[in-house]
Amino acid sequence: MRILQYCCLLLFLTACKTEKKETEKVAPPETIETAVLLSEEETKGNALLDKSITAHGGMDAWKSFAGLEYNLSDNGKMVYQLTQLKDRRAYLKSKKYEVGFDGIVAWAKPDAQEVSGKSSAFYYNLDFYFIGVPFLLKDPGVHAFYDGQTVVNDKTYETLKITFGKGVGLTPEDVYYLYIDPNTHLLEILTYSISYFDKESAPVNSAKVYSDYQNVQGLMMPHQMENFEWKDGQMGKSKNHLRLFSDIRFLSVIPDEGLFEVPDGAITEEL
Fold first, then answer.
1. Which of 7, 206, 222, 271 has the smallest CB count inside 10 Å?
2. For residue 221, with 0-12 CB atoms within 10 Å meaning exposed, 13-18 middle and 19 or more buried, which class applies?
3. pLDDT at site 271
4. Is 31 a member of any domain?
5. Mean pLDDT lowest for which of 53-62, 149-158, 162-171, 228-237?
6. Mean pLDDT, to the nearest integer, of 80-86?
7. 139 with 128: CB under 8 angstroms?
């Protein structure tokens, strides 16, 4: 009788092991990853974006830092700006206001009446995003498509079209076009739409020209940006809006992260 019980137990354990092996071999349908096939334009776009990032100093160098700070002369108005590169918390300060983002809400003190768009949520990372291109275009949900060669003011550029996935950032409806020097692979012109205030009607009608590149701790950073009119693929006259960046510095450690926190008396704005 004991021998019979032992044989039954052995058969049961063997069956369990066999069932476990079969289960391990076959993954449930929901765990099987589906390969994402990129179009030819997106494959070429990613390759060109990678070349441009390498020309600007490389993604590894950008990721090695914790923060970026600089002084900005925005049509003569001086603003200090500091951004935490990993989570994008921000702090901006001028004579008339302080603006920040603590990771949850944007804030302004005393209010946002003096800042662009009169909105702290719109303004806190506005200049950082422009100076952070092309590195920031490696964020999740950003799509780069090769848009061919384009002639602007008698110069030929390699062109990238940038779009954003649904729910990416505050304005996924935005579209950027990057005009990249085919020899240096540095970004020279950025055209864009702004859909933050009007998502239904946001044509690409502005161009930002990047210049005065300087090597800052191994990364090529523009020290001047000027806005121009843009219509039907042609650059128009200057909008007389000049941004000058100075004292650009990458930080390994941010000395006082308390700057990002909402101060007493600030007006907050949900993102």
1. 7
2. buried
3. 83
4. no
5. 162-171
6. 98
7. no
* Burial of 200 from C-beta contacts in 10 A (0-12 / 13-18 / 19+): exposed
Tell me, what's the pLDDT at 34?
Answer: 45
Percentage of the chain exceeding pLDDT 90? 72
Which range marks the domain in which residue 133 is found? 57-270
In a domain, 19, yes or no: no
CATH number at residue 167: 2.50.20
Per-residue pLDDT band for 35 (boundaries 50, 70, 90) equals low
18 occurs within a structural domain: no
Domain assignment present for 37: no
**Count: domains in the chain:** 1
Cis preceding-peptide flag for 172 (omega within 30 of 0) = no
Q: What is the pLDDT of residue 29?
A: 44
CA pair distance 117, 191, nearest whole angstrom: 19
